[in-house]
């Protein structure tokens, strides 16, 4: 979710804020049961062949970027394209695209993206906590006794936590290598660009909510939880990151 909850906040909404129930309600029409089973944590904004200084610098850029974020970028004049992971590097190398988003430092480095684009924009406004899921046939799920359901759900919860921990460790090491040894320029997007992306996101979400009651139901639950989490995070995590972590 663009400008959404981070890993901690997302877990709070999913496990204890009604998120899991809504997720299952959405999938129920397809006779499927989804269970959160992994998370990358915050992803990176992506790789650019040229520096982004203003919103105007985005206009006309051809970028590999999927999903809702692609729609947001289009509002700012970006030519958003869907390209399979294995095709990102050759397309960026040949200049077919000017920028690309994938995951984070470790997996991005495996694709070799640092070899063809040196500007690496960090904290991904578009994917603050990207979850993966196990999807189970509803009839098969309902045939399981409670103890086996509990085993599956707890195994998925373990995968969710362990996968994010893996990303933290490996991304930290990869980012250090990219900056110190590979000549990558890692920096956040300029404030005015983030502001424009936020405004475009709000516009697209408002349009989606107005069109579909299910979308509105999930949206309202998610952002009501986020408002409370933001207030708590301002009094806890924000203070940690700004005054304690590097004090």
Description:
56% of the residues lie in helices and 15% in strands. It has 247 residues and is of the alpha/beta class. It has one domain (7-238): D-Maltodextrin-Binding Protein, domain 2, CATH 3.40.190. The strands form two sheets. The protein has a six-stranded mixed sheet. A two-stranded antiparallel ribbon has the order 1-7. Helix 3 (67-75) links the parallel strand 3 (62-64) and strand 4. Helix 2 packs antiparallel against helix 9 (213-235) and helix 5 packs across helix 7. The chain is globular and about 55 Å long.
Major sheet characteristics = 6 strands, mixed
Tertiary shape: globular
Counted by DSSP, the helix tally is: 10
pLDDT < 50 runs, ≥5 residues: none
Quick summary:
With 247 residues, the protein is an alpha/beta fold.
Helices and strands, with pairings:
Elements: H1 7-16, H2 19-28, E1 32-39, E2 44-48, E3 62-64, H3 67-75, E4 79-81, H4 85-94, E5 99-100, H5 105-111, E6 119-123, E7 131-137, H6 138-142, H7 146-181, E8 185-187, H8 191-211, H9 213-235, H10 237-244
Parallel strand pairs: 3-4, 3-5, 6-8
Antiparallel strand pairs: 1-7, 2-5, 2-6
Keywords:
single chain, 247 residues, alpha/beta, D-Maltodextrin-Binding Protein, domain 2, 6-stranded mixed sheet, 8 strands
């Amino acid at each position: 979710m663009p400008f959404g909850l981070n890993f901690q906040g997302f877990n709070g909404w999913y496990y204890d804020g009604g998120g899991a129930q809504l997720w299952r309600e959405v999938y129920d029409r397809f006779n499927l049961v989804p269970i959160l089973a992994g998370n990358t944590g915050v992803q990176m904004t992506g790789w650019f062949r040229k520096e982004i200084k203003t919103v105007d610098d985005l206009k006309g850029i051809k970028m590999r970027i999927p999903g809702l974020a692609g729609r947001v970028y289009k509002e700012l004049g970006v030519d958003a394209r869907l390209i399979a992971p294995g095709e990102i590097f050759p397309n960026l190398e040949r200049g077919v695209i000017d920028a690309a988003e994938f995951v984070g430092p470790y997996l991005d480095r495996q694709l070799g993206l640092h070899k063809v684009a040196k500007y690496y924009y960090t904290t991904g406004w578009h994917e603050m906590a990207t979850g993966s899921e196990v999807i189970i046939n509803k009839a098969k799920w309902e045939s399981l006794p409670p103890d086996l359901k509990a085993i599956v759900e707890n195994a998925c919860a373990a995968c969710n936590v362990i996968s994010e921990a893996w990303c933290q460790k490996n991304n930290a090491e990869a980012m250090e290598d990219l900056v110190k040894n590979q000549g990558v320029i890692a920096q956040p997007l300029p404030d005015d660009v983030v502001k424009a992306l936020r405004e475009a996101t709000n516009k697209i979400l408002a349009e989606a909510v107005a069109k579909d009651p299910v979308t509105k139901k999930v949206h309202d639950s998610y952002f009501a939880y986020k408002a409370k989490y933001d207030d708590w995070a301002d009094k806890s995590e924000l203070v940690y990151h700004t005054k304690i972590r590097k004090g």
